[in-house]
Amino acid sequence: MSPANAISTASALDILAVQAALHEQGLDGWLLYDFHGMNGIAVDVTGVGRQGGHLTTRRWYYLIPASGEPRALVHAIESHALAHLPGTTERYSGRAALESGLQQLLRGMRRIAMEYSPGCAIPYVSRVDAGTIELVRQSGVEVVSSGDLIQQFSAVWRAEQIKTHTAASEKLYRVKDRAFEEAARRLKDGAKVTEFDIQQLMAAWFVEEGLISDSAPVVAAERNAGDPHYLPTAETTRTIGREEVLLLDLWGKLDVPGAVFADITWVGYTGREVPARIGKAFNAVKRARDAAVELVQQRTRAGEEIRGFEVDGASMAVLRAAGYGDAILHRTGHSLGESVHGNGVNMDDYETHDDRRLLPGTGFTIEPGVYFADFGIRSEINMIVGDQDATVTGPRQTEMLALL
Questions:
Q1: In order of start, what are the domains of the chain with their CATH numbers?
Q2: Is the terminal CB of the chain with fewer CB neighbours within 10 Å at N or C?
Q3: d(CA 377, CA 330)
Q4: Is the pTM of this model over 0.85?
Q5: Which of 239, 225, 235 shows the shortest CA–CA distance to 190?
Q6: Residues 240-251 pLDDT 10s
Q7: How far apart are CA 136 and CA 33, in angstroms?
Q8: What does the alpha-carbon distance between residue 6 and residue 161 come to, in Å, rounded to a whole number?
Q9: What confidence score (pLDDT) does residue 12 get?
């Protein structure tokens, strides 16, 4: 890949913008901390490891105060770990020097944000261990969640990243169409076809399309579609038969630095006419998906706040009203980013209570589903929030695909 095709991912952290956000939230600072890459959010925000070096193996701290110059604390043998960031740096080596250095770093701070969530209400935010939180509190500092800061400085996509998402989405839809067509062709010809067969074809088409992912796609037939995290392998695959639900879940991004993921799920039926029970479940999932989309668009167009748990609530209400409360196994959607599960807000009041706001420039999935012992149904689309509207970035499935 030539440098001209790369997306800038190591642009300087906008300290002034962070400080403005800290003032707005009534915070004295944001303390970013990591050990061995355990806090991926801090690594992402600071760009540690993207400067031609390696991830650090010792504890480091980077404090952005609401006013004044940032300051860092790093281990002496990794003295240049944060050299690419603005501010002053102090070094430590032994444990005593670390503790005294941290107290000095926090001088003048009363209330700071860290990657912490009270009661672990949002585990995706809780990246700092309890012992480190205790150590900071021993300095007389109150620790609050950095959840909204993460949204603003780690989850918002730049314009060029949005373009990579749109391109990846178009490619995923093509792969999905080819997969259903091939499964249908083999079934019509009377040839044996397994979930793994279709999955491996899709993986090859990813390569053709220039897509990368952290996993091969999900191809799940009948009862396997009732397991939201089923993934076929050569050893566990099932032969796809006639008159069965066939679920495809595929996610990928362009093979360029800074690209962000797209993630879709569609369902088909390997017969001519979808049975009433399956069709009823699909229609409930479709209405739940569309209720979530409508709420996001309605609030965004009105200039009103919308939070993740509210989107989940709108979708879940439809499924429960349709009598599928016991068939729900997961939240309505998740953040998208450079990882398929991004650092932003999730559409969740089921597994967690995500009260973070959907900010302009953030992307996420809407993917309600219902699951039974003999089949499962999920419909997954992607959305991006803009300044005055929110957009679904690909076609929505409106009916079950009858494949034969």
A1: 3-154 (3.40.350.10), 157-402 (3.90.230.10)
A2: N
A3: 12
A4: yes
A5: 239
A6: 999 999 999 999
A7: 11
A8: 11
A9: 61
